[in-house]
Amino acid sequence: MTHQLRAIWRFRYFWASLVRLDLRNRYRRSVLGIGWSLLNPIAMTVVFCIVFGRIMHQDRWQTYAPFLLAGMVIWEFIKGTAVQGCDSFVRAEAYIRQCPLPYAIYPLRTVLGTFIHFAIGMFVVIAGAALVRGPDDPSPFTALWAVLPVLPLLFVFCWGVATIAAFAHVYFHDTKHLLEAGSQMYFFVTPIMYHRAVLERQHLGWVADLNPVSVFLEAVRDPLLSGVPPAGGQYAAAAVLALAAFGLACGTMAWLQKKVIFQL
């Protein structure tokens, strides 16, 4: 794996150019450009604020809207890397057949592209929360320093998920469709539009404990909006998930990277 990481760094100009190419092709001749990446989470936030605000007993949209938007941005990042990661090897088939480059480059390409959208979304969340907060509400900048160490762990976790999804999709082409359908159900068992306390009142707190997305929501969103840094257990849970995804991705790569070319 050390050799793989050195090789990835050696070819950094190649995968960086692929990321720029993806963004340029996606938003070519677009009026809003990369701003379109925020349309879905912002639209969903508006809908949920209007429809579910009263149901969730959230009378202050100034606190509920940043809560929803932050959850949607984190959710879209994790979901996007999993779903788009399925195509990492398929769309890079020409490069794989011609150049003996590390296979980890291609899921990394996907994760970097989605991470750019995630970073823009989080900037909007922080700026919006700072603008609409009341005089008694904590500033989102209070615990920002404590959230920054979680972001590399989230990135590594998503890279591992994208790598596993890429290999799975090559061997089983329904993987992407299953992830898209499964993510719609997974969304509602994840505390995105409601607080974890809602699950705990129904004695379903274990659902959040077993949910990887919930771990990163608690480690990133909650400190930004509450001003309270993540607890040590939250850092540990995020690190375990990142290392588990990274290790599983490395094992899958070592097992299948010499065989995957025959499946493309």
Distance between the termini: 24 Å
**Domains, number:** 1
What ranges have pLDDT less than 50 throughout 5 or more consecutive residues? none
Tell me the helix content.
over 70%
H/E series: HHHHHHHHHHHHH
Shape: globular
Report the C-alpha radius of gyration, rounded. Answer: 19 Å
Average pLDDT, all residues: 86
Largest sheet: none
Q: What is the percentage of strand-forming residues?
A: under 5%
Q: Count all strands and give the number.
A: 0
Structural class, from secondary structure content?
Answer: mainly alpha
Total helix count?
A: 13
Describe the structure.
With 264 residues, the chain is mainly alpha-helical. The chain has one domain. The chain contains 13 helices and no strands. α4 runs antiparallel to α6 (105-132) and α4 runs antiparallel to α12. The longest helix is centred in the middle third of the chain and has 28 residues, at 105-132.
How is the secondary structure organized here?
Elements: H1 2-10, H2 12-26, H3 39-52, H4 61-85, H5 93-98, H6 105-132, H7 144-147, H8 150-171, H9 175-188, H10 196-201, H11 205-209, H12 212-226, H13 232-256
Helix pairs in contact: 2-6, 3-4, 4-6, 4-8, 4-9, 4-12, 6-8, 8-13, 12-13
In short:
By secondary structure, the chain is mostly helical.
Features:
mainly alpha, about 70% helix, 13 helices, about 260 residues
